[in-house]
Write a structure and sequence with these properties.
about 525 residues, mainly alpha, Growth Hormone, Chain: A, about 80% helix
């Protein structure tokens, strides 16, 4: 009998625990989406400056991304369930703090605390799945559910947020977290066992700090490029982050108990899955950005209506995540991922057809097709990443996996956002209108949002002509970005098909001593 067939199968307790684990995952992605709806309301109440508003939106993602590796490793040391419960308490308290903020500064601090607390959730839940589901086939199913819960949260967020903002003040969108976290605190000790690495050394504080700086610095630099183009500040931030990252890697090689075992990256399956994950999130986050803009600024939808039209894509992603384990049980993950990414490329090619009479149908179809295709890539890449490592290293591997997702998303937003801006401005070059001030023309040529604002202030015919030209320019930019996404998705498909051949169908990627799994503390 092989090691794989000798591994214990999950019981009802593990499957019930998976349902509990899905709760913070839903909330994790909901919190990324509901704030966008609340921005106009909180802006009217708190009156933040443009810089403060930027930090209100961004600080959550910055500190979440920067803290993932440390939190994943901390769970290996103090216990994954314990870290999850600590994070749940912190997230609930920070949500109340955010909901009742009375100033922009207070809300920025609250959002920063939410980001740090959120960083405990994904690595803790994913590493618990690694230890609860030792059978590779069952683990793939569990990770598919785990990933689907994030997509469900992303779909639910705009709907719940829209309803709450229709009847309550802006802070109500944060209070949604409180009952979810209370339920987690009650149910988790009942159904989730505790896991920790009994041989883990003390947490190296300097390594934890060094791991935070590169991620924060690089992502900050990337976002600066997306907003203002390549400048001295953005370049310095990225170079500084890479330099600190190199210092971090050198320190890990010298420590007896490193924060991250760099030997993990010697595994071809581990490293290749990380690359595929980065590329997948690159196209996913970038496309979310320009699709949301198109629905609202070109088709004229409000945030809630635009959110409703993204629901089909969320269902497609959930379906893809759910079906992936069934297919992967019979077909090598390399082929499943390659086929899914090729399907995603097809969806992006559909999106290159925007600009006609059937715009909404094109967007909903393309969005749904690429979501269905990306789901297998995300599910199996995550499964391989956590399945490659020893069970006691699952927290660290989970933190690395989530950091790669955040980095890929930031790159996608920055690179594709910059391309969209450049193509739009090129399309608006030379646009003039009689009787329109130079400052208004400059604003319209800068962004589509600026063009919409200027058009609303102009006489009907003049405003309509300007808006038509701006929307035509943005449609061209949209088509260009969608075409680039198609090429990136196709490249990721080729990489997955070639580099992940060693992973067998239905067997996952097993660590060398998978037959001796880490014992839980019950």
């Amino acid at each position: 009998m092989s090691d794989v067939t000798a591994l214990p199968r999950a019981t009802r307790r593990e499957w019930t625990g998976l349902a509990v684990i899905a709760l913070p995952c839903l909330l994790y992605s909901m919190d990324l989406t509901v704030l966008n709806l609340a921005v106009p309301h909180l802006s009217a109440d708190l009156k933040p400056s443009s810089s403060q508003l930027l930090w209100i939106v961004d600080i959550y993602g910055f500190l979440l991304a920067g803290s993932l590796i440390t939190m994943g490793t901390l769970g290996d040391r103090i216990g994954r369930r314990r870290l999850l419960l600590i994070g749940a308490v912190a997230f609930g308290m920070a949500s109340v703090f955010a909901a009742f903020s009375t100033s922009a500064e207070m809300l920025i601090i609250a959002r920063a605390l939410l980001g740090i607390a959120a960083a405990t959730l994904a690595p803790s839940t994913l590493s618990l799945i690694r230890n609860m589901f030792l059978d590779p086939k069952e683990r793939t199913v569990a990770i598919g559910v785990w990933i689907a819960s994030f997509s469900a949260g992303g779909a639910i967020g705009p709907l719940v947020g829209g309803i709450l903002l229709s009847y309550f003040w802006w802070g109500s969108v944060f209070l949604v977290a409180v009952p979810v976290m209370v339920a987690l605190l009650v149910l988790a000790p009942m159904v989730l066992p505790e896991y920790r690495d009994p041989e883990a050394g003390r947490l190296d504080i300097l390594s934890a700090a060094l791991s935070l700086v590169p991620v924060l610095s690089v992502i900050y630099g990337i976002k600066r490029i997306a907003e203002y183009g390549l400048g001295r500040e953005a370049a310095f931030s990225i170079v500084f982050g890479l330099a600190v990252g190199a210092a971090f890697a050198l320190r890990q090689q010298r420590l007896r108990n490193p924060l991250i075992d760099l030997g993990l990256f010697r595994s071809r399956a581990f490293s290749a899955s990380l690359v595929v994950n980065v590329l997948g999130f690159f196209v996913a986050f970038g496309s979310f950005l320009f699709t949301a803009q198109y629905l609202q600024l070109v088709l004229g939808m409000g945030p809630f209506e635009a959110g409703l039209w993204t629901v089909p894509s969320a269902f497609a992603f959930i379906a893809g995540s759910t079906l992936t384990p069934i297919v992967a049980a019979r077909v090598r993950p390399a082929y499943v991922m390659a086929a899914g990414l090729a399907l995603a490329a097809t969806g992006f090619l559909v999106l290159t057809r925007v600009g006609g009479q059937a715009d909404l149908a094109v967007i909903v179809t393309g969005y749904s097709v690429f979501s269905l295709g990306l789901a297998p890539a995300f599910t199996l890449a995550t499964d391989i990443i956590v399945g490659t490592v020893e069970p006691e290293q699952a927290g660290a591997a989970s933190g690395i996996a989530e950091t790669s997702s955040e980095l890929g998303g930031a790159l996608g937003i920055a690179v594709l956002g910059s391309i969209i801006t450049a193509v739009y401005r090129s399309g608006m070059t030379g646009v003039v209108a009689d009787g329109v001030a130079v400052q208004q023309i400059d604003a319209a040529q800068d962004t589509l949002g600026g063009a919409v604002a200027v058009a609303m202030a102009l006489p009907d015919e003049l405003g309509s002509d300007l808006l038509d030209k701006a929307r035509e320019a943005f449609a061209l930019a949209f088509q260009t970005a969608a075409g680039i996404c198609a090429l990136v998705a196709l490249a990721a498909a080729i990489l997955a098909g070639i580099l992940l051949q060693s992973v067998s169908a239905g067997a996952g990627q097993q660590p060398m001593n998978a037959s001796t799994p880490l014992s839980p503390d019950l």
